[in-house]
């Protein structure tokens, strides 16, 4: 059973201050505040530190700070405890490792160049030695479509985006745990409030001073955000980002291709 356990070592957690969407007193993110108290668990996103060291899985826990489950692990050689994101079907008592080759079990970590095509991956690095950035939410996973060249691998992300990732980046075998997270139903309003989300008010129900849609004057204006920016059909991504050259097929284009099929 997945539940909240007492932490074995205090170094694995710390108190978490509730900011409630404020930045020096001003609201930077709306509809935030009022969450329950929680403690932050430190997750090991740099698996290459444990290269060629066997790791024992002690238990799988619930983490209130993320949608996926986490696994408490212990290195057999040094006896150090740490948390990792629990892959789907990771068994208690299983041995996992970080290796440059010959990865076989779910939870093993290695470079993309030594991982065969068609296998689900999680905790994928975006750049070399950057730590896990991609495929960390519950039920997500990336797939290596093709070893593109000597430098890059073509990876399909859970958002259906096709992207080139360096072969020196590390990834973990298996998709992320808690696949049924998308099927969870909120039975009462406090389920959302306890997670730190406050109610959302429609712009048209506000006064003109509070929102561009306010005053109940329908029509005559395009859909806009509360700050006056265009809200629909406008890209917010910067055009001159370095990573744009690594995206082969974007999310929108891939979804249009699948609709035509």
From TrEMBL:
Protein name from the UniProt record: Ribosomal protein L2
Domain Large ribosomal subunit protein uL2 C-terminal: 104-230
Domain named Large ribosomal subunit protein uL2 RNA-binding: residues: 21-98
GO CC list: mitochondrial large ribosomal subunit
Species of origin: Heterostelium pallidum
SUPFAM superfamilies tied to this protein: Nucleic acid-binding proteins, Translation proteins SH3-like domain
A biological process from GO: mitochondrial translation
Gene (UniProt): rpl2
Superkingdom of origin: Eukaryota
């Amino acid at each position: 059973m997945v539940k909240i356990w007492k932490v074995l070592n205090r170094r694995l957690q710390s108190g978490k201050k509730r900011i409630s969407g404020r930045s020096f007193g001003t609201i930077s993110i709306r509809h935030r505040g009022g969450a329950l108290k929680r403690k932050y668990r430190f997750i090991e996103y740099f698996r290459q530190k444990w290269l060629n060291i066997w790791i024992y899985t002690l238990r799988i826990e619930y983490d209130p700070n993320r949608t996926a489950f986490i696994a408490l692990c212990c290195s057999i050689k040094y006896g150090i405890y740490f948390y990792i994101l629990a892959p789907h079907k990771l068994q208690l008592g299983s041995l996992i490792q970080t290796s440059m080759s010959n990865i076989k079990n779910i939870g093993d970590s290695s470079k993309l160049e030594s991982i065969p095509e068609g296998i689900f991956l999680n905790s994928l690095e975006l750049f070399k030695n950057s730590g896990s950035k991609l495929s960390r939410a519950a039920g997500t996973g990336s797939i290596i479509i093709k070893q593109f060249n000597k430098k890059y691998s073509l990876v399909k992300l859970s958002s259906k985006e096709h992207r080139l990732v360096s072969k020196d980046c590390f990834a973990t075998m298996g998709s992320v745990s808690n696949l049924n997270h998308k099927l969870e139903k909120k039975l009462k309003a406090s389920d959302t409030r306890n997670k730190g989300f406050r109610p959302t008010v429609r712009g048209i129900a506000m006064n003109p001073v509070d929102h561009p849609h306010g005053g109940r004057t329908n029509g005559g204006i395009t859909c806009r955000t509360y700050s006056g920016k265009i809200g629909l059909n406008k890209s917010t991504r910067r055009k001159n980002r370095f990573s744009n050259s690594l995206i082969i097929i974007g999310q929108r284009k891939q979804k249009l291709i699948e609709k035509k099929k």
